Amino acid sequence: MMLLAIPDGALALGLGTALALGAAAVVLRPLLGDMVAEPPRPPAPPRADAAQAGAIEALREIEFDRATGKLSDADYAALRATYTREALSEMRARDAAAAVATLPAGAEDAVEAALRDFRARAARCPEHGARPEADARFCSECGRFLGGRCPGCGASCDEPGQRFCGDCGTALAA
């Protein structure tokens, strides 16, 4: 039998090439494996509260953007005011829908009657409507005196921020 004579350099070159190709295959496999066509996944079903959580999520985002320096204080204040109003209305609507859904038949009329009674007794601002505070003396949005008339002389006292009667000087706040 006759053995083939392989030069020493060729054996080392072949072995090095095989090791290099094996290492390249191991490294590139995760990258090339994603190129294989997979069947498309159906989109995840939306969460039940996803539609109502828009403004709440936006508030979280602007908090994060401000903390990371992407949002100025002035922009943050404006966006926060807007998104806070929207988030409150979303939460109130969600709570009202949940409350109505859990009421027994006929109880909705009792709730409506209680709301009408509260609104009739509540202090009202001519510009902003009924105030949510039971003992409000001033509008929580514009500062207007809610009594409407001076307790001392009966003069009209409905200017925003008015603390004293313009006619007799009686203090309108305690």
How would you characterize the overall build of this protein?
The chain has 174 residues and is mostly helical. 49% of the residues lie in helices and 5% in strands. The protein has a two-stranded antiparallel ribbon. Strands 3-4 form a two-stranded antiparallel sheet. Helix 2 (54-67) runs antiparallel to helix 3 (73-102). It starts with 7 loop residues before the first helix and ends in a 17-residue tail after the last strand. Residues 125-169 form the DZANK-type domain. This is DZANK-type domain-containing protein. InterPro entries: DZR (IPR025874).
Note the topology.
Layout: H1 8-33, H2 54-67, H3 73-102, H4 107-121, E1 124-125, E2 129-130, E3 148-149, E4 156-157
Antiparallel strand pairs: 1-2, 3-4
Helix pairs in contact: 2-3
Protein name: DZANK-type domain-containing protein
Domain DZANK-type: 125-169
InterPro entries: DZR (IPR025874)
Would you summarize the structure shown here?
This is DZANK-type domain-containing protein. This protein is mainly alpha-helical.
pLDDT averaged over residues = 75
Structural class: mainly alpha
Radius of gyration using CA atoms only: 36 Å
User: Helix and strand succession?
Assistant: HHHHEEEE
Strand order of the largest sheet: 1-2
The major pleated sheet works out as: 2 strands, antiparallel
Oligomer: single chain
Using the alpha-carbon principal axes, give the shape.
elongated
Quickly count the helices.
4
Strand content is: under 5%
List keywords for this structure.
174 residues, mainly alpha, two-stranded antiparallel ribbon, 4 helices, 5% strand, elongated
